[in-house]
Each structure stands twice: as structure tokens, then as C-alpha cells.
Amino acid sequence: MVLVLAGGAGWWLWPRTAPVSVPVTTSASPLPSLSVTVVPVQARPLARVVFGDGSVVPWQELVIGAETGGLRVSAVLVEEGDAVRAGQVLLQLDASVATAQRDGAAAGLQEAEAALAIARSDLGRATQLSTSGSASRQLVDQRQAAARQAEARLASARAALAEAEARLAQATIRAPFAGIVLRRNVLAGAVPGLGTELVRLLRDGRLELDARVPELELSAVAPGQAVRVTHGGREIAATVRAVAPNVTAESRLGVVHVALPPDSGLRPGMFARAEIHGDAAPALVVPQEAVVFRDGAAAAFVVEDGQARLRRLDTGARQDGEVEVRAGLAAGEAVVRSGAGFLADGDRVRVVPAVGG
């Protein structure tokens, strides 16, 4: 019992030491810097590129129909896909009735010519007799009236013959210009009605691409500009023929008519894409790797006093690894090229030379 108390007293009488205090550093350590490379924003001419797509259509398409109804088709001389020349016979209609009418009109013309010759001869004799006093003036007037009637009948006969020949010509349907037969809608033996479509022609075999372009891009498109048309793996060099004057209200798209070369290999109804190359204009550009996306919008970092500052960008065309900057940067500003994807606004950075620079 004595030992326990002594031990307790010893514990109470043991000298207590003061706690060791740890010095607190009040100065903050500098944040680490990220190493980046920068490149200046450059101003240079940039060719404007406008993109569009659409269907291949005929440059000019002509529907050829029957000018007269009720005639049987006696021969069809072309097939779909045939190339035809101007004036070539496409179809032949039964011309038996028209031929008979033409022959009758020709005979009527001969009869009118003979009647006029007799009337003129009678007028000449009456005039001679009147001069010698052997014929009255009344007879001369009658002969003159008969001659004028004969002339009128001759003119009518000539018109009837011309009409008959025109009807006969309508039985032979010819190509009004050179082209390609897109469609043939009749067979031999059919009796088409007046105006019925018989053949559809593509004029001169020329095709176009009706490329649909956003309304805000139409101002950069003009006739004569070069176009690269793509269809699958095929690339075709073409040119802008015209720009349609109207824009579709529902889609806000305009149509650019792109003239295709004869050897394009495309066909009406195919779908293709167009890359229209406009004239070069001054623009600000930065390397593509300098452009990052924050909150779904394009941006870039500029270096100011050793810190990366985020700038929102309005970008345009992308060509040869460069991006057009329409707003957000000024020429000569240093933008982060390497390491931009790892930065946040306000990060401290250390600019280092580019590898190989």
C-alpha cells in the first residue's frame, strides 16, 4: 500500500515539460507554372470555301410531245440513253392521211395557177379589143375582176398546200437540238393524243448540281468560281454557272447551279457535295491546335503577364491546318499552341521555345 502511494506521489511530483510549438510559415509558395509554346495571330489572305450539297439535274430538259392527235406511231427510232443530233428523227407517225391531204392541196394549187393564167390571158385580149374599140369597157372590168379572183384562189391554194405540208411534217418527230434521250414513253403502234409526252431530251448532254447553300454563305459565291464536286470517292472539277435569286423560307437555303463537265460520270437524280472556292480575302488565322472548346464554344488562350487568359472565338473557315478567327483575337497576339488543352483561365504558364523552332 505504501509503495502505491509513493509511486503516485512520484508521478505528481514529476516535472512537466512545455509542448513543442511548430513554426507556421506565413508566406505562400508560388504555384507551379505549366510549360507552353505560343504563336502569334497572323493576318493573311484566306480563300473562302463554301460547302453545299444537292441533286444532279439536267441543265435544260425538253419534253417532246405530239403536235397532232390521232396518228398511230409507226416507228420509234431511239432508246433511252441514246445521243442524238439536232434534226435527227426520233419517232415516225402514220403519215398516209397527211400525205393524201398534201397531194390534194398540191393539185388544187396547180388548178389555181392554171385558172389564173386563163384569167390573165382573157384580160389581155379584152384590153386589146377595148383599145381598138371592139370591146366595151364593161368587158374589160369583168376580165379584171376574174383575174383578181383567180389570184385570190391561187393564194388560198398556196396556203392550203403549206398547211398540208406542215401537217405532214408533224408526222415526223425530230430532235430540236443535240442531246441525250432521258425517257421514251411510247411504243410503235400506240396512238398518242395531242400534247402527249413522247420523248424527254437532255440538251447537249449537260448536267448541273443544284447545291443547297446556307443563306449567310451565298454572298461569297459568284459565277465562274471553281468547285470541287464529290460523289462517293469520285472528285470532279466544276464551276459555278449561276446563283438562284431566291432563298427557301422554310430551310433558309439558296441554290447554286454548278455546271458539271461532260465526262463527270454522274446521272440525273444522284446526290453529290460541292466545295465552292471563293476569292481570297484578308483574314486572321491561328493553328488548329490552338483552338480549344469550352462549354461547347470555340476558344483560345493568350498569354498575359505570365498567365493564360481564355478568349471566346468566332471562327470561320478551316484550311491547311489553320482556322479563321472572325472575332476574339487581334493580329500579333500570342496564343498558346502546345498545351492549350490542359489549361484553365488564369493558370500561370512558362513560355518555352517550340521543338525544332
Automatic annotation (TrEMBL):
Residues 209-278 form the CusB-like beta-barrel domain. Transmembrane segments: none annotated. Pfam families: Beta-barrel_RND_2 (PF25954), HH_MFP_RND (PF25876), YknX_C (PF25989). SUPFAM superfamilies: HlyD-like secretion proteins. Keywords: Coiled coil. Residues 104-170 form the Multidrug resistance protein MdtA-like alpha-helical hairpin domain. Residues 109-174 form a coiled coil. Belongs to the membrane fusion protein (MFP) (TC 8.A.1) family. This is Efflux RND transporter periplasmic adaptor subunit. It comes from Roseomonas haemaphysalidis.
